[in-house]
Design brief:
alpha/beta, 16 strands, four-stranded mixed sheet, 13 helices, 35% helix, seven-stranded mixed sheet, Aspartate Aminotransferase, domain 1
Length: 453
């Protein structure tokens, strides 16, 4: 019987030995249990939830444990290893910088200067300032702050409302969760903050109405005056179910923000740096936001995030008024610069677009074969496969978890479905994945779907 927790009882599983997968021990590996138990003893339960696999090293699209097993990675870590795991160019840049200077709080360094210049260079015209932080939620907090500061200059104290979208995830800090659209994640905060308002996300599935008029109607129903909106915050795709908004909707949203002097922020934490088949996810919509927040694929795996924005929003603050202890530290900056150069030199956005056509075609084939697949959403090398109960469109989170666990035992690494999207199986391999690795992963997923029927 599947559950929402991976079993820590070693199970005898069929051996696997293919170009992309190798399973030669029980899963989980018996020798790994002392490490897992030590984590359970010392860390809170909130830190658990991923497959009980000890990551010893990772290369390209492969994950290795210390006992000879190898998994095909369909997670990219956490959508971070866009250029692949352990790329020598990134490792060399990191090592060279670590031997010179590890840490420099807010002090000028060459890696920081080069990274900032490179980000501005590759961004669309208009996004001509950058601030570096440590994590995605920190970048989103900065965007909220910038939106409200800008709004006070144009609309006074009443212009402070942040509009975001139902089912959105922007992080786990106070501000980012207030802006998030998952009610269960905000219960700890207390009564709703009227300055944070959510509207339906036009995904065409949970919200069938994808017309922009719904945005305006929803604000009106919540008694929100456009003149009081400081900013609108939207994910370039909603992470849990890999949902994209219609381009026309996004274009009208950008126009609405211009007319009402509201800051439009695109959360690119998951979408940025080639994941969707374009360098930036918002490029699919033909818009340029006022602010864009990046992390994950920016550095490849190191703690670094960035806010790119218009000079009119980011200029005008006195020295040392918006600093951060670790943001832009030279080691992470050097690694990020090497990572970005790899993504561009190898044209990984184009590779993601081409490989994504194969991935989505094959996932569509599985959907026709397995009626328990309710939809396949996504673009490029991000996809979500919704698992539903037989003869219904009711999400089946238990079955989705069982499918993921079966895949892990067969050597295909996937996320454990959690939260609002608990019935969706997320697929996001490194952008360098080969066609044969995609097909091998599809075969494993196919077998897991049949096995758990």
């Amino acid at each position: 019987m599947a559950s929402f927790t991976f079993s820590t009882i070693p199970a005898q599983v069929p051996t696997v030995d293919t170009p992309h997968r190798r399973i030669k021990t029980p899963i989980p590996v018996p020798e790994s249990l002392p490490i897992i138990r030590k984590m359970l003893e010392c860390e809170p339960e909130a830190m658990t939830g991923m497959a009980p696999v000890i990551w010893d090293r990772a290369e390209a699209c492969s994950i290795f444990d210390p006992w000879g097993n190898m998994w095909l990675d369909w997670t990219s870590g956490v959508l971070a290893a866009n250029a692949g795991h352990g790329r020598r160019e990134v490792v060399d840049a990191l090592k060279a910088q670590a031997e010179k200077l590890l840490f420099a709080y807010a002090h000028p360094t060459q890696p920081r200067a080069m990274l900032a210049a490179r980000l501005v260079e590759i961004a669309p015209p208009g996004l001509d300032r950058v601030m570096l932080f440590s994590g995605g939620a920190e970048a989103l907090e900065c965007a909220i702050k910038l939106s409200r500061i800008s709004a006070r200059k144009t609309g006074g104290e009443h212009k402070r409302i942040i509009v975001s979208f139902n089912n959105a995830f922007h992080g786990r800090t106070l501000g980012s969760q207030l802006a998030g659209g998952i009610s269960a994640m905000k219960e700890w905060i207390g009564p709703p903050d009227p300055a944070f308002v959510q509207v339906p996300f036009p995904d065409g599935y949970l919200c069938r109405d994808t017309a922009f008029d719904l945005f305006e109607r929803s604000l009106k129903e919540q008694n929100v005056q456009p003149a009081h909106v400081a900013g609108v915050l939207i994910e370039s795709f909603q992470g849990g179910d890999a949902n994209f908004a219609p381009p026309e909707y996004m274009q009208r949203l950008a126009d609405w923000c211009r007319r009402h002097h509201a800051v439009l922020t695109c959360d690119e934490v998951q979408a940025g740096f080639g994941r969707t088949g374009r360098l930036f996810g918002f490029e699919h919509y033909g818009i340029v936001p006022d602010l864009a927040c990046f992390a994950k694929g920016l550095s490849g795996s190191l703690p670094l995030s960035a806010v790119l924005g218009r000079a009119a929003l980011l200029d005008g603050f006195p020295p040392r008024s918006m600093t951060t202890t670790y943001g832009g530290n030279p080691v992470c900056a050097a690694a990020a610069l090497a990572n970005i150069n790899l993504i561009l030199a190898e044209d990984l956005p184009a590779r993601a677009a081409k490989a994504g056509e194969l991935l989505h075609r094959e996932l569509g084939r599985l959907a026709r074969k397995h009626p328990e697949i309710g939809f396949v959403h996504g673009r490029g090398l991000v996809a979500a496969v919704l698992i539903v109960k037989p003869n219904t469109q009711q999400p089946d989170a238990l079955r989705a978890f069982g499918i993921v666990e079966a895949c892990v035992r067969k050597g295909l690494m996937l996320f454990a479905p959690v939260g609002f999207a608990a019935a969706s199986i997320k697929i996001c391999p490194p952008l360098i994945i080969s066609d044969d690795a995609i097909m091998e992963g599809i075969a494993v997923l196919d077998a897991a779907l049949a096995e758990t029927a």
